[in-house]
Here is the input.
Amino acid sequence: MSINDWIERGGTPAAPGSGRLRPLGLREVTLRPGFWQQRQETNRSASLAHIEHWLEKSGWLGNFDAAVAGRLPGDRRGREFADTEVYKLLEAMAWEFGRTRDPVLDRRYRALVSRVAAAQEADGYLNTNFGRPGQAPRYSDLEWGHELYSFGHLVQAGVARARTCGDDELVRVAVRAADHVCAVFGPDGIASVCGHPEIEPALVELFRVTGERRYLDQAKLFVQRRGHQVLADIEFGRSYFQDDIPVRDADVLRGHAVRATYLASGAVDLAVETGDTELLAAVTGQWRATVARRTYLTGGMGSRHQDEAFGEDFALPPDRAYSETCAAIGSVMLSWRLLLAHGDAEYADLIERTLFNVIATAPADDGKGFFYTNTLHQRVPGSEPEPDVLVPRAASSLRAPWFAVSCCPTNLARTFASLAAYVATSDDDGLQLHQYTAAGLGTTLPDGRRIGLEVETVYPRDGRIAVRVTESPDTAWPLSLRVPPWAAGATLDGRPVTPGWARLHRVFAVGDVVVLELPVQPRLTVPDPRIDAVRGCVAVERGPVVLCAESVDLPAGVSLDALFLPGGTALKDDDGTVVVTGRPVGPPDAGWPYGAAAGAPGPDVDIPLKPYHRWGRRGPSTMRVWLPVTDS
Ligand SMILES: [Zn+2]
Here is the structure.
C-alpha cells in the first residue's frame, strides 16, 4: 500500500509489505464509548498534556534548546535516554492527529518538533547527551549510551507522522538521522549494535514508508550482528542486551524484557520484508516458548527487578513480578507482527490478555499517574506519591506522575493513541475481528469492495458481541471472529463455535447482525506446578480479565496474607462482583517461621474479587492475584 493510501486511512503502526493479514488504518476503526474508548480519550485529553508538562518541568525538552544555545553539557537534565521521551510523545501526537485532525494538537506537535529539529547537527546526528566538548564522544558507549535506541524512537515518530500526514519537518529530521545511522554503522562502518534494540523495527518501518532499501539493509546488519558478542560483557551478562546468541539461533526470549521484545519485533519486520522464513520461524518459536514458560497470568513479562529481565523458565514470583509496562507494550508489538504474518488467533489472544491486564492497569483514572512495574502481589500498602514530585525509582504500590526513567508513560501514550489499529484486520477477501470493543469499522478490500461494520458490546463486562453490517458488497465475503481459548461454550448466531476463528462466509446485507456470545462467567485458574512460587494457589478470571483481592475490600482486622480458600470453594456472583470464601488462618505463634503448626482458622469471610486493572485506585492497599488453597 502506498504512503498516500495510508495517509487516507489514518496511518497504522507496523505496516508490513506482506503477510497473512493486513492492518487497518486509524481512520478505518473508530472506538465508540466503552472500555477502550474511555482510556483513549483520557490519554488524548489528559495524558498528552501531562507528559508535555513533565517533559518541560524535568528539563528534558529544554535539553534540545540548551543544545542549540550551546549550554550543554552544563544544562543537560535527565538520563542518557531522556530525548526518547520527547520522541515518544511526538509519536503519540502524530497518531492522535491522524485519528482526530485536531488543529490545537497539531500546533503543539509542530512547536515541539521545531525545538527538536533545531538541535539536529549538520550530518544528521541528534542526541543531547553525546558529542559536544565536555560530553562523552559519539558512540563511545554502545552498551549503555542508548544513541541508536534514541534514533529508533525518533524514526518511529517520523514514521507515525509520515503515515498520517505525509512529509513534514519531523519526517525530514528522522530521514536525516536514519541516513546518518546508515553512514556510520553501514557495512564499512562501526560493526556493532546498540545496547538497547529499537533502531531495528524503526529502520524497517522507515523502509516501508520511503521504499529506500538502505534502511532495510541497515536493520538486517544490526539483527545479524547482535548475538556475536559485539558489545562488552556487563554485570548482567550479554544476554541482558541479547548479544549472547544470534537472533536466529535463540529458542526463547531472555535478558531485559523490553529490549528482547523490541528486538524480536524488529526481527519479525525484517524477516517479513526479506522473505527470511527461517528467521520468522525462529522468532515465532521464541514467542511460543516465552508464552509457555516465562509469562505472567496477566500477560506481563520480566520477573527480575535487578536487570528488568526475564527469569528462567517458570520463575514467575507474583510478589517480585517486575512486569514492566513497556515490556507489555513490547509484547503487544511482537504479537501484533506475528499475527499479521501468520494470521493465527493465538497472537491476538495474548494481545487481549496483555491489554486488559497490564496496559489497562498501568494508567491512573485521570491519566496523570502510571505504574512502571505491575506486581501480582502487593504485600505492603504503598504511600501516595506527590502529584508534582518525580519518583526516583519504579515502585509497584501506587501510580506515580513521573519517573526518573519515564519510559512507560510515553509508551502508553503512543499505544493508546494507536489502539484502534489492533481491533481488526483484512485479507484479500474478508475481515477479521481480533479485539472486542464498541467500534465502527469501514474499509476497502484490495479488490475494491467496501465493508462497514458496527460492533456493539459492553465487553468484557458482558460477553455478547453484536456485529451489525453497515456496508457490504452484494457478493459473498468471509467475516472471521476470534474465539478466545477460555471461551468454552461460545456461540455464533446460536451455533457452537470453538476457540480460534469462527468464520461466516456469505453474502451480507446492510442491517444484518451477527452475534457472538462469549461466556464470561468467572472461572478458577490453576498454575503449572513448575511455577513454584504459586503452587497450591488459584486465581480467578472472568473472560479476559484477571481478578484480584484487595485489602480495602476486607473486613477490619483481616489480613490478606492470612487468607486461604477452603478446597472446593465456589465462586459466587454478588451483583456483578465475584466473591469467594476466605478462611483466615492465624500464623504460627512462634519466633521461627518454619516447622510450627499454623494457628486455628478464624471464621470464614467473603473476599470480593475485582478486576486486577482496577487495583490501587482506592488508596494504599495490599493486593494479590494468586490465592492459596487449603484443605483444612
Ligand atoms: Zn517502561
Remarks:
- Residues 324-326, 372, 407-408, 411 surround zinc ion (CB under 6 Å).
- The two ends are 63 Å apart (CA to CA).
- The mean pLDDT is 96.
- The chain has 14 helices and 22 strands.
